[in-house]
Specification:
It is a single chain. The protein has two domains: 2-74 and 174-257, D-Maltodextrin-Binding Protein, domain 2 (3-Layer(aba) Sandwich), CATH 3.40.190.10; 81-170, D-Maltodextrin-Binding Protein, domain 2 (3-Layer(aba) Sandwich). It is an alpha/beta fold. 46% of the residues lie in helices and 22% in strands. Helix 1 packs across helix 8 and helix 4 packs across helix 7. The chain is built from eleven helices and ten strands. The strands form three sheets. Strands 7-6-8-5-9 form a five-stranded mixed beta sheet, with helices on both faces. A three-stranded antiparallel beta sheet has the order 3-10-4. Bound molecules: the ligand C=C(O[C@@H]1C=C(C(=O)O)C=C[C@H]1O)C(=O)O. The ligand C=C(O[C@@H]1C=C(C(=O)O)C=C[C@H]1O)C(=O)O is lined by residues 7, 9, 11, 35, 53, 72, 78, 80-81, 103-106, 144-145, 176-177. GO terms for molecular function: hydro-lyase activity. Catalyzes the dehydration of chorismate into 3-[(1-carboxyvinyl)oxy]benzoate, a step in the biosynthesis of menaquinone (MK, vitamin K2). InterPro entries: Menaquinone_biosynth, MqnA. Keywords: Lyase, Menaquinone biosynthesis.
């Protein structure tokens, strides 16, 4: 059976709720985890199709193919990729920033923004995503996903939104995660990929058309207020059209410039690039 990864955050609920409620049929064993775990499991060959951090794809593009027409993105503010601050950003020069161990893309995005937008050079210390512990030891802390949404709601600390800054700097949307198909799955089950692509298109449509059901499900998972969830699900984009594809390739170019990638990378999208 298809081993399908699922990010353990609200951001993919509008896609996966159709599968878990059986509104869109898909024979799969679901494996949920934070992005860093899915990245690792995919590269170890333990997942056939899964969302992974876009930078994790760029680090090993030979591991597989990108699923067409789907990503985890935002065009400007993203609301769940936040740098919480004990001091103004300008005072971070030469300091160490705590970064969540759950992320890969956003850690690189932070480095790009620090070097290219703020012209500040910092060190980065990976830590478990616990805001008060992070800020007790370091002047700033990066959180993503539900950790960031909950921390913003509960801790009331100053923060900057990395999606907003990326848009200020480049004018582009930011693609945080891509769904990828493992090369072993392509070799053995390529005839099944078409139906998985179709299932994801259906589930995405289902999520758009059943927004209140998705919000009800989100309320069961977390304590966030309904208006915040409504806004969040409007903010997160799942596109991977030509403009998003160009945007993620620009992100890879910057990543190479700050030495977070050995060289720039182009996407290899299933059904589009051969
Ligand atoms: C917008 C988000 O997208 C994501 C951010 C990721 C990363 O930083 O590596 C990976 C997967 C997505 O969950 C988020 O988690 O807040």
């Amino acid at each position: 059976m298809l081993r399908l990864g699922k990010v353990d955050y609200l951001n993919v609920l509008p896609i996966y709720h159709a599968f878990s409620s059986r509104s869109v049929p898909l024979e799969a064993e679901l494996v949920a985890g934070v992005p860093a775990l899915l990245n690792q499991k995919f590269l170890a060959g333990e997942l056939d199709i899964t969302p992974i951090s876009s930078i994790a794809y760029a680090r090993q593009p030979e591991a597989g193919w990108v699923l067409p027409d789907i990503s985890i993105s935002a065009d400007g503010e993203v609301e769940s990729i936040l740098l919480f601050l004990n001091c103004p950003v300008e005072e971070l020069q030469g300091k160490t920033i705590a970064v969540t161990t759950s992320s890969a893309t956003s850690v690189v995005l932070l480095k790009i923004l620090m070097e290219r937008y703020f012209h500040i050079s910092c060190s980065y210390q990976p830590l478990q995503p616990n805001l008060s512990e992070m800020l007790a030891q370091y002047p700033a802390a990066l959180l993503i996903g539900d950790d960031a949404l909950l921390a913003r709601e509960n801790c009331k600390r100053p923060y900057v939104d990395l999606g907003f800054l990326w848009k200020e700097m480049t004018g582009l949307p930011m693609v945080y995660a891509l769904w990828v198909i493992h090369r072993d799955y392509v070799q053995s089950k390529s005839h099944q990929i078409g139906s998985v692509v179709e299932a994801f298109q259906q589930s995405r449509r289902w999520g758009m058309n059943h927004r209140s059901e998705v919000i009800r499900e989100a309320r069961k998972i977390c304590s966030l207020p309904t208006p915040l969830l409504e806004r969040y699900f409007d903010t997160i984009r799942y596109d991977l059209d030509d403009s998003y594809r160009k945007a993620v390739e620009v992100f890879f170019d910057y990543a190479a410039q700050v030495k977070a990638l050995p060289a720039p990378v182009k996407l290899k999208v299933w059904g589009v690039d051969g």
